[in-house]
Amino acid sequence: MNTSLPAQRLHSLWRNAWENYDIRQCLEPVIGHGVSVVDNWLDDRIREETVLLIIALQVDPDKPEGTGEAAVALLLGNRLTQHILTPQAVLQRVEESFTETLAENIAQALDWVPAQPADSRVVSRSG
Q1: 36 sits in which H/E element
Q2: Which superkingdom (predicted)?
Q3: How far is CA 118 from CA 92, 110, 111, 122, in A?
Q4: ∠ CA 58-60-66 to the nearest 5 degrees?
Q5: Are 36 and 70 in contact (CB under 8 A)?
Q6: Which residue(s) pair with 3 in the sheet?
Q7: In the chain, where are the structural domains located?
Q8: Cβ–Cβ under 8 Å, residues 82 and 49
Q9: Phi, psi of 64 (to 5 degrees)
């Protein structure tokens, strides 16, 4: 978040928005920022029927010159436990492993995101 709004005001706005849309699911805020939050959630909650809603927002920023107000959201689910929503994309993350062979690392990657040979045209590489 990039905002000059007081935390209590921001919390009140979220609560009101949640109520206005009649969303009844429990909220459990996750403390942290960056990719490590997503990585930890994927590691620690792999067997839970939860989803992770990531929201980034800039509202009434401290230094407004040359900026605008914006909000974006990303909803992550777990393909092992969530079967209601149809995935629009699958997230593949690299695990650093010095003890496993390349074949074991590839097998783990394919377990996280099952792929068919025809899917290889949409695979990206990083190194």
Answers
A1: helix 35-44
A2: Bacteria
A3: 17, 14, 17, 9
A4: 75
A5: no
A6: 59
A7: 2-83, 92-127
A8: yes
A9: -75, -15
